[in-house]
Predict the 3D structure of the following.
Amino acid sequence: MLDIAFAKPALPKSGALVLLIAEGAAPSGLWAQADEATGGAIGRALKVAEFKGAKGKTCAILAPGAELSRVLAIGIGKAGDVTRKILEEAGGAITAALTRDAAVAIAADSLTGAQAAEVALGAVLRAYRFDRYRTKEKAEDKPRLAKLTVLTAEPPKAKAAWEPLAATANGVFLTRDFVSEPPNVLNPAEMADRCRKLAELGLKIEILGPKEMGKLGFGALMGVSQGSANEPRLVVMQWHGASGNGKRGTRDKPIAFIGKGVTFDTGGISIKPAAGMEDMKWDMAGAGTVAGLMATLAGRKAKVDAVGLIGLVENMPSGTAQRPGDVVTSYSGQTIEVINTDAEGRLVLCDVMWYAQQKFDPKFMVDLATLTGAIIIGLGHEYGGMFSNNDALSKQLHDAGQETGERVWRMPLDEAYDKQLRSDIADMKNVGGRPAGSITAAQFLQRFVTNNRPWAHLDIAGTAWSSKDGAVTPKGATAFGVRLLDRLVANHYEG
Ligand code: BES
Ligand code: MN
Ligand code: ZN
């Protein structure tokens, strides 16, 4: 991660300087000082560029004088309308544009300390790179930026605000690393082993293997896994931040987060076409997001009791693979006719959801899954699909999404869709045909929610990975959901 420092405003003697400029604002503070030190070069350049500080506009000025390598002006819109999201995006614009200087100073002297930390978060998130497997990249092609100094009138306040945000960035990066890893490296056992290391953060980690899950009767999950040479895992990550570790009996019911972790989805015997199949390495994004979220909550010592459960399997075709037509008995006891082995995510989730409820009786649960291609048809890559049996939880998630930019849109649940799941020989089929493919998947999952417990299902198939750079997400793994759910917890479930 980029090195972040906060310091009192002082004009840097060299390197790059960033000016965050509100719409229509007159030069003051570091901006005015820099303009003077460069003999008015900044003012002249901004005028020629017709830069007025509108949100998202930038203007780069090379070698303006005063031994600065460059000045980057970034518009943050009207001073009264500045939001966390605008500041994060401004931070993202900094690290997207300034990769050649090793050190960059950001003039945030017109902002509060807390706002300065928000700029830093955006900058750090946008600077993520997954370069573990590049051995031949030339040094001059690598980004040089290593240190960001945020100049603020309130360094101690900025530092205090930065601490939990740094934990969030670490959680996001953990998720992005998981999702980016190739599927030969990140199989279920490897992912579980990496989760085990999160115990360092104070999480309690338990891992179940095929023996334990077989004994418990995870017939649906084990059916998906049976075609693979790689064993399945269930990882349970507990964070006791509200009640303190180990004080039994004083605990409130926890919140549960559940993730689909298919480390590679070939489709199984209902095999997928070759084109684009490599994308199915990120079919564990739901699980990766839950792991990153739990790391975030622990890293910032969130005052909440939460448990994350991830079902890890590989969906392969082989002589031992399950067949279309197989009937499996889920952990809940409900039987499922597996019509299509490529609708495997719901088979994994249903057993993990049931286990989460049996074991923890959570006050509510949210599952995340790259569950259906159909959600991409419905919502594209801008919104995640949200399905919920609870209006209050839906609203909280919707609002947290707007704040973080990880936006979700509610889709319907309705028992009218249930007839699409009727089976002639079992309690249900695992697919409901082409119409409303994302909804029938959610209807399937709802059959594994007990006592009408508040529950939300987030279908992140369209948002977990991006083929284009975003404001705070370089192309590739986005970690969509980590910040959304971290904010959900921070807004409503702490203290
Ligand atoms: N992992 C896929 C869904 C997916 C598709 C995720 C594209 C990301 C990008 C899931 O397991 C799947 O194969 N779903 C099927 C369900 C169908 C067989 C009912 C699909 O969406 O086609
Ligand atoms: Mn599939
Ligand atoms: Zn899948």
